[in-house]
Specification:
The chain is α/β, with parallel strands linked by helices. The protein has a domain at about 10-185 and about 220-250 and about 285-300: 3-Layer(aba) Sandwich (Rossmann fold), CATH 3.40.50.720. Helix content is about 35%, strand content about 15%. It has nine helices and 13 strands. The strands form four sheets. Strands 3-2-1-4-5-6-11 form a seven-stranded parallel β-sheet, with helices on both faces. Strand 1 (about 10-15), helix 1 (about 20-30) and strand 2 (about 35-40) form a beta-alpha-beta unit. It is globular. Uridine-5'-diphosphate binds next to helix 5 and strand 8.
Length: about 325
Amino acid sequence: MKAGRDSRMRVLVTGGAGFLGSFLCERLIEQGHDVICVDNFYTGDKRNIAGLLGKPNFELIRHDVTFPLYVEVDRIFNLACPASPIHYQRDPVQTTKTSVHGAINMLGLAKRVKARILQASTSEVYGDPEVHPQPESYWGRVNPVGPRSCYDEGKRCAETLFFDYHRQHGLDIKVVRIFNTYGPRMHPNDGRVVSNFIVQALRGEPLTIYGDGSQTRSFCYVDDLIEGMLRMMESPAEFVGPVNLGNPGEFTMLQLAEMVICLTGSSSRIEFHPLPQDDPRQRRPDIALAGEVLGWGPETQLGSGLAKTIEFFEETLPPKRAKLSR
Ligand code: NAD
Ligand code: UDP
């Protein structure tokens, strides 16, 4: 839907140069809003927003959300935070700071300018779940002192801050819990399973399955996810969430590897590696609430979403550099 003269808004997207943020900025620009993209390029890339840089209603600010920000906006999408385990574990203290100090700064900004603010939370708040599939009412099973804790607990604390600002200061908040999302513009080296498998298959390298490959995940295509986030942002004020956004189709990592090999026509084999600590056994969103309140559900099947993602990597993957001989 296009924004009219009266519905045109100033929208801040933190983490706007990242994978999800760049698609969100594009959709908001298409809708006719004025978009401010804030990013410190920790995992983001200017190439993700290259198509937007010359647009009169798009502005880019290099800024770290752990420091206060002063802008005038009507809406804030708070996405700033590395999302892949290898990136968020590289500097775990900074990851927690980004989630917690970033949330405090963005909530403070929302309070000052009376903006509505949406938090990109995660299925990781459910940890390694004993309840399956996961409804929003499930409190989760998270290790507070493990290698994934900086991300999981940082995001849990950010949710707490959102709800306390809502209760204490009457802030207009929205919280979405995003389940594994994939698509074009994933970073080829970010270590997430979809990008890893596709890159490995295209390069004819072995697909690295961690553990025996029986753990499950549910994969949502990026366009579906962005549609859900936009609907949540414009949903009635009394619906604050948290609401799950994801695709309930559940696959083992072995099934995913086989699909990627088949879709790429690769001759790669599968190789088994040790399972990382605290790797969740299973993941599947219960999306009944999103269906009921937002009228939202994913439309892209895994096979067609993977085909589009493979096409992106075929076009953009740099040739593998040969190892230097000593
Ligand atoms: P991404 O790493 O591609 O994007 C994150 C962006 O935030 C990057 O552009 C990065 O440079 C920026 N950033 C990181 N720290 C920052 C800081 N301190 N200040 C300013 N910018 C900073 O990840 P993504 O997949 O696009 O994820 C976006 C958001 O969605 C994250 O908050 C993530 O936790 C959440 N999420 C993503 C998924 C997923 O499957 N992709 C799942 C659940 C939740
Ligand atoms: N995984 C895998 N091989 C890889 C990368 C990941 O088998 O090359 C597994 C990982 O152990 C996890 C699942 O795939 O069980 C999803 O991993 P990802 O990092 O994409 O997301 P998350 O664990 O955060 O859901």
